[in-house]
Amino acid sequence: MKNLSILILFALLSASGIAQNDAVVVYDNENFTGESRTLFGHWNPEGLSDVFNNRIGSISVPAGTWLIIFDETGFRGHYLVIDNNWSAIDNYAAWNNNIGSILVMHDANAGIPSDQSYNNSGNGNTGTNNNSGQYNNNQPAGQNNYVPDNAGVYYNLNAALKNPEEVIVLDIRGQHLDSWPAFFSNMKNLRELYISDNNFSSWPPFFSDLKQLEVLVAENNKFTDFPAYFNSFKNLEVLDLSGNSIKSFPAFFQELSSLRELDMSYTGVTSFPAFFNELTNLESLNIAYTGISSFPSFFDELTRLRWMDITGTGITDLPYAVRSMNIIIVGRPE
What we know:
Blueprint (H helix, E strand, L loop, with lengths): L3 H11 L9 E4 L8 E4 L18 E3 L4 E8 L3 E7 L3 E2 L13 E6 L26 E4 L16 E2 L2 H6 L6 E3 L20 E3 L20 E3 L20 E3 L20 E3 L20 E3 L20 E3 L10 H4 L4 E3 L4
Parallel strand pairs: 9-10, 10-11, 11-12, 12-13, 13-14, 14-15, 15-16, 16-17
Antiparallel strand pairs: 1-2, 1-3, 3-6, 4-5, 4-7, 5-8
């Protein structure tokens, strides 16, 4: 899901009344059973006084409607995009009783220019009930000055070339690119870059000029290593390197003091580096389908960590320190 902060602002500004037969219905159990509530607009409960806060197990979604569900109130935290009847089962079991707010959007073509599902994570239509979900670990920014449309968001390189200094968000996923255009060095205000599902294998020297970069999503490319200048990205908060031929956690990670979300799934990493405890702001970690088989003794020092996926790893037991952490662990051993 791209540019979520933009979509949130757009949704909140465009909220309007909804006909009864177009309303969303949430249930407190999986498979559309138990108590239910009809939502005629966005849902953002205030604390535990709302009985459905963290109690939703399935959602009925009418045609022409799509939702963004969050695991925190205030449209924050991890999120999932769904556009069909959905139940928190199978790949989505971790969402059962973990939904804190919901954005209700109409006309599915208005806000999602292209499919954003993670091809390597096995998500999509699963099980019964026509589960349809696009999962992304990128946590949206809490505050921003983005305005929907014509506000620095580009999906085309040719368009970005004409106004490089106006580019704030560049999404060029799935365009079969293998080389970097030189004008990248002119995008001084670039904050979010999405280059997934291309054929990039190296980083150009001028990439070091992107000092304001906050989000870098580069899954499913051909990267194997990283230049030293990556340690200068002090504003980087979200980093997705999943699906690349990376054998170890790059050394520059320890300099990323602002990093909140890290996705290293489907890479060749086999262990945590000694400096990993220095990522003190880390909130989300995905190491699914890697060669990692154990946690280091310092892992509980990551006190802000709230979500982790260890599906398909060699981890067969959770040490007491990890089990004592207040986090959601997807794929945890029985």
